[in-house]
Amino acid sequence: MAQTILIVDDEKDIADLLAAFLKNEGFTILTAYNGEDALRLVTDEAVDLAVLDIMLPDIDGFSLLQKIRIRHFFPVLMLTAKGEATDKITGLSLGADDYITKPFNPLEVVARVKTQLRRYQTYNQPPSLTEYDVQGLQVSKQKHKVYLYGEEIKLTPLEFDILWYLCERAGTVVSSEELFEGVWQEKYLDNNNTVMAHIARLREKLHEPPRKPKFVKTVWGVGYTIEK
Q1: Residues 61-73: what's their mean pLDDT?
Q2: Buried b (16+ CB within 10 A) or exposed e, 126-164
Q3: Band of pLDDT at residue 153, cut at 50, 70 and 90
Q4: CB 11 within 8 A of CB 18
Q5: What is the CATH number for 72?
Q6: Domain span at residue 142?
Q7: For residues 176, 179, 184 and 186, what is the CA-based torsion angle, rounded to 10 degrees?
Q8: Which pLDDT score is estimated for 40?
Q9: Is residue 106 domain-shared with residue 176, that is, in the same domain?
């Protein structure tokens, strides 16, 4: 699903210019030309990031930022024609995440938007999985060990990485291409036989019946999965 960017600027030409560049990057754009409309959109829509001008006709951007921050914590980039350090300090102290001075390069704004979204997602993602334990198969990322019904199974580093990649995505089907690029960190280029060979060795070490594997299962024509 495309992320939603709210642009708040009373200068329509600037708002439209930013909207065009951000749309070109695949973002969904909401536009407001005053503070009242901006607050309504923030309330009614799922906004992922806002680009907020300080000079608005009905309310200054600092006050608008304060109102937004009462309930919302998505990244906010401040836009201003002023370059004074005091304005930047004020905006950042009120909860702005970045500051851009007009005139600006739209490509720089796009880059800053992407950076702030990445940071926000990193800080707000759920804790990563460190242990997998289902039906007698135990996998520990921290200890880099695998146990099957209490007995340690010796895997090569690559075999462990394949198994852990599937454990992290337990319950979903992972294609050969995704598995190869995620584990080998190389372009796929039709390396299905490589993936199949390593999956076969992994299953052998897990004492899986070739025709009816219990743990690492094949979804024909799609990829591989492990139970959640």
Answers
A1: 93
A2: eeeeeebeeeebbbeeeeeebebeeeebebeeebbbbbb
A3: very high
A4: no
A5: 3.40.50.2300
A6: 131-226
A7: 70
A8: 96
A9: no
pLDDT value, residue 103? 87
Of 82, 103, 124, the one marking the end of a domain is 124
Query: Going by C-beta distance under 8 Å and a sequence separation of 6 or more, which residues neighbour residue 103?
Result: none
The string of pLDDT tens digits covering residues 182-214 is 999 888 887 778 999 999 999 999 999 878 999
Amino acid at 128: S
Q: Are residue 158 and residue 197 in the same domain, yes or no?
A: yes
Same domain, 116 and 143: no
DSSP secondary structure of 12-77: HHHHHHHHHHHHHTT-EEEEESSHHHHHHHHHHS--SEEEEES--SSS-HHHHHHHHHTT--S-EE
Instruction: Tell me which H or E stretch contains 215.
Output: none
User: For residue 126, what pLDDT is reported?
Assistant: 58
pLDDT at 137 over 60: yes
CATH number of 200's domain: 1.10.10.10
Question: Is 118 found in the same domain as 20?
Answer: yes
Report residue 112's pLDDT band, with 50, 70 and 90 as the boundaries: very high
SS3 category, 115: helix
Clarify whether residues 113 and 9 are in a common domain: yes
Distance CA 54, CA 60 (A): 6
Q: Which is it for strands 137-140 and 131-134: parallel, antiparallel or unpaired?
A: antiparallel
Q: Reduced to 3 states, what is the DSSP secondary structure of residue 137?
A: strand
